[in-house]
Amino acid sequence: MNVQDYKRRLLDLETQLSTRVDRRHAGAREQAGESVRDAGDSSVADEDASEAFTEAELDAAVLQQVRDALQRIDKGTFGRCVVDGGPIEPKRLEAVPWTPYCAKHQRLLEAASRPRTPSL
Ligand SMILES: [Zn+2]
Questions:
Q1: Most-buried pick from 9, 38, 63, 64 (CB within 10 A)?
Q2: What is the spatial distance between Cα 33 and Cα 59, in angstroms, rounded to a whole number?
């Protein structure tokens, strides 16, 4: 595993996400008071203002995970599950480099809380 490659990807993501979060929060404030419709298929380029707040919340959640992952790189624990310290599957890291959990613990957590899957 090339940690520096992941670090670059995570730093890029952090920049993209924080820009989007800032922009979306600005847009969402103007839309406050309007009901939030069910988010269908939205793309980054074609933002529906009524979806801006939920999307911003999702981006903010991923952004936090990206920052946590960057801290794990600095501490030398990147690529290990934060629950049991075991290795995270390379394919998982490739797809979701900010994940703090191995597949087993991700499944346990999803069974407990059913979070939405970030689409990046
Ligand atoms: Zn684990």
A1: 63
A2: 21
- Rounded to the nearest angstrom, the distance between the alpha carbon of 68 and the centre of ligand 1 is 16
Torsion angles phi and psi, residue 80, rounded to 5: -115, 140
Helix (H, G, I), strand (E, B) or coil at 71: helix
Distance 111 CA to ligand 1 centre (A): 14
Q: Is this prediction's pTM over 0.90?
A: no
Report the separation in Å between the CA atom of 96 and the middle of ligand 1, taken as the mean of its atom positions. 15
Give 19-64 pLDDT, tens digit per residue: 998 887 777 677 665 545 555 555 544 555 556 668 778 899 999 9
CB 17 within 8 A of CB 62: yes
DSSP 96: -
